[in-house]
Amino acid sequence: MSGVDERAVRTEVRAWLEQHWDPERDLVSWRELLADSGWGVPHWPRAWFGRDLPVALCGAIEAEFEAIGAVGVARIGIRMLAAATLLEHGTDAHKSRFLRRILTGEDTWCQLFSEPGSGSDLAGATTRADFDGTQWTVNGQKLWTTSAHHAEWGLLLARTDWDAPKHQGLSYFVIDMTQPGVSVQPVKQMNGYASFNQVFFSDARVPPDNLVGTIGGGWQVAMTTLAHERRNADALRRWGEASTREGRIYDEERAEIASVMAPYTWYPQRTGRVDLALARARETGRLADPALRQELARLLMLSRSSEWLAQRARTAREAGRPEGPEGSLGKLAASHVARQAAAVHTAISGADAMLAGADGPLDGLIAEILLSVPATSIAGGTDEIQLNIIAERVLGLPREPRLDGGPFRDVPRNPER
Amino acid sequence: MHYSFTPEQEQFRDVVRRFLADQSPITRVRQTMATTDGIDTVLWRRLNDDLGLAGIHVPEALGGSGFGNQELGIVCEELGRALACLPYLSSAVLASRALRHGATPDEQATLLPRLVSGAATATLAWMEGPHWSGCGDIALCARTDGDAWRLDGRKTHVLDGVTADCVVVVARDEGRDDDGGIGLYLVDGAASGLHRRALASIDATRPLAELEFAGVTAQRLGRAGSGAAALARTLDDGAVALAHELVGAAQAVLEASVEYARLRMQFGRPIGSFQAIKHKCANLLLELELAKAAVYYAAAARDAGDIDSAALASQAKAQASEAALACAREAIQIHGGIGFTWDQDTHLWFKRVTCAAVLLGDAAWHRERFLALTERAA
């Protein structure tokens, strides 16, 4: 498929690792070495910490890292979306200033897109950035911001032109999250956790050099970030997988992961935890109920066929066919699986489904499933948006007439809060 | 397991699709439906003379093409899309598979080439009432009469039962009530004592019949005691093939619905621009794609000799039945009043799907079986 021989690449990376890998090193200095070698992100350009290798080879390279036990560059969180966006739209100054500290894990990033008034309709953002000739001043509010509470930098989508049509009045900035004009508060969710933040900007400052892309061209840049968010979904699922090996660098990596992961221990539960269903049904004696058996069979079939659908999509991708609608189909399927799983867990639990914490089934895990599943059909694009995407882009059905053309100033929107 | 289609398989699908679009357009389906036999014999001949499709999955030594369940599935999917009026499921799938699983090599060498060439058709008669729970339901009695066997009893819901040149009958040895007494028998369609009556079916594209056996002479197939296992494998093969047919039919009606929603104007805009319609279509696509994933996986698993292939067959049939029913039901809804008329074609697929969804076990039956098998494996 590619002109690069996998075996040769494996040999080369193995030799490099054998020469340089040392588990007693500190995490940042190892990652600096890794970044400069190009082996940390081999699919990136040579000029920027990579080796211009095809993405298809990254798995083989990762396998070599795993074999020797070497720690990779920092990857969890929003930082890789920031890196991908800056690689595509950033200036050389942006790249040399930000990319290295992204890879070493010294800087944490967050994505400032969603707002209380614009969720599905992301381009309806009303956080404003005004230029006074020397710098930008930012005012407004963002919501659902992962990692904002410990981020150094934010990827900000803000309105810079209120007379332009909705999508053309937005600009994209890198904003310093540690300045006084930025305040971050946790948002408590219905399942009791507080995994995300709301971010308030009150005369926050952004220097003109921190504009990414052109003034008014922010939407295109944001699309790049979002495309990588979808593509990274698989990788993000591996969040929180820390090595169990011993050594100073592993301790540091584990601490890093634990700190990032702390607010997300409920994430596995939002999928519905299909893996628990059959065994629980058997252990509770409920497997004899014909009505439950039907629903359980539905769940297992749905869950398996979703995996096979994703597998078909992956095979197509690997065969070089373009990324199709499978992403939207897969996301929608995941919502169905999660809902059906919640229904099955409820049926297995009977009246115990009312109970939480130590009183609840599986020490409260079932309650956590029931209260986390509703996130699945909303986060990362609601089911309704996925249905629109499938209907319009896959089936070719016409778009709905829109009421948000013309100057953004005149577009009906939510009242300011 | 690798279960996506190869370029050669995609090419094969194109050939079959083009052939059927050309040779069996819906106007021809309507003509065939109106005939007494309900089978397009000209199309059957071409299908076999030009493309050799009745033997696609049969080894070359027996006159076939030597391909597997995936290629058989492609044919069935395209037949479902085109709604072709052919004895394919009855003869090429059920009877042919029953012979492969249940007959001795010598019997296969004698019988299969004629089915593979399409020169003769056969069918499988196993049902005796509206429900099927296993070989325990079989009462049709086989008794020896000198060197010959004679059958007495009744079979129902027999696909193409009136036109089939011969019938593979599942019968029970006289005096036996265990599965070891189940055997497969070959009966000539014109045998004396065999009374064949066409049943009025909702789906005029696939004839059904009731067969009465009164001392009918039969040839016993295979080794004694092997009938039940051969039947089980055959019915699973049939379920996977029929699941392919269902997703093919579902794809056809969904495409027609989407096309109609794109063109039909109400309230000054295409109805497909309303989320009530577009979300319906997108949900149908999701259900169909999930069903296809299960169906293709099941076919690949059978070719790979997967030990879970019985559970996978049930999963395929359950999901394909429900997805196809949803697509057909909503196709009529999306077409509105015109969809309820005889002249509009949607009802033809609706009828095929309604019947195919219950044939060889409905979704609930297969869900229960899937769970029982999964439970045992876990």
Set down the secondary structure blueprint.
The complex is a heterodimer of chains A (417) and B (378).
Chain A: H1 6-20, H2 27-37, H3 58-68, H4 79-89, H5 92-104, E1 109-112, E2 128-131, E3 136-145, E4 153-159, E5 170-176, E6 182-187, E7 196-206, E8 211-212, H6 218-231, H7 233-236, H8 248-261, H9 267-270, H10 277-283, H11 290-318, H12 326-349, H13 365-372, H14 383-394
Parallel strand pairs in A: 1-4
Antiparallel strand pairs in A: 2-3, 3-7, 4-5, 5-8, 6-7
Chain B: H1 7-23, H2 26-33, H3 41-50, H4 69-82, H5 88-102, H6 105-117, E1 122-125, E2 141-145, E3 148-159, E4 166-173, E5 182-188, E6 194-199, E7 208-221, H7 227-263, E8 265-266, E9 269-270, H8 275-303, H9 309-335, H10 346-358, H11 363-377
Parallel strand pairs in B: 1-4, 2-4
Antiparallel strand pairs in B: 2-3, 3-7, 4-5, 5-7, 6-7, 8-9
Helix pairs in contact in B: 1-4, 4-7, 5-6, 5-7, 7-8, 7-9, 7-10, 8-9, 9-10, 9-11
